[in-house]
Specification:
about 55% helix, 3 helices
């Protein structure tokens, strides 16, 4: 996996709202974007294992 730019990661994390009963949809969108940025979306959403290079 390519290294994530720390500035982009920090901005992405700060943009995630605190989860409440009223904002689940928005929170989910932000969390999914964070997983996608980190290359983890398929693992987290679908339970698909990520293949590692040996």
């Amino acid at each position: 996996m390519d290294e994530i730019n720390p500035t982009i990661l920090k901005i992405t994390i700060k943009a995630i709202p605190t989860l409440t009963e009223e904002n689940f949809s928005s929170w989910r969108t932000h969390i999914t974007a964070l997983f996608k940025l980190g290359g983890l979306k398929d693992q987290m959403v679908n339970g698909v294992e990520r293949k590692t290079v040996s």
